[in-house]
Design brief:
This protein is mainly alpha-helical and 111 residues long. It has five helices and two strands; from the N terminus they run ααααββα.
């Protein structure tokens, strides 16, 4: 499980719509900064700063491929976020199932 600090950085990074769009794009495959910047009406430097935030949050990594420096989505980091969310989702679902069972029992008693 991710530490509180890692979770804070990751969720803060995902709080920005541009960074969420970058994550969505990287979910389809690796891309360079230039490729990531294409659909945005912001400077390449601004996109680069967003990438740095995502990298610092551990959500993406970069590698060197000759002259290219592609960005890669870190699926493991997303799995950690999903696991954290699932912990609470499952707890809520359990409470709802218990409530459903109580309501069903009351309904049976009434009939």
């Amino acid at each position: 499980m991710a530490s509180d600090e890692q979770l804070d950085r990751a969720f803060a990074a995902l709080g920005d719509p541009v960074r969420r769009a970058l994550i969505a794009r990287l979910s389809r495959g690796d891309a360079t900064v230039n490729e990531l910047a294409e659909p945005f009406d912001i400077t390449k430097q601004a996109v680069s700063r967003h990438i740095q935030v995502l990298e610092a949050a551990g959500l993406i990594t970069r590698s060197r491929d000759g002259q290219r420096r592609p960005c890669h989505l870190d699926a493991g980091a997303l799995e950690q976020l999903t696991a954290w969310i699932d912990t609470y989702r499952l707890a809520v679902e359990q409470r709802h199932r218990r409530l459903d069972a109580v309501l069903e029992a009351i309904k049976k008693e009434e009939t």
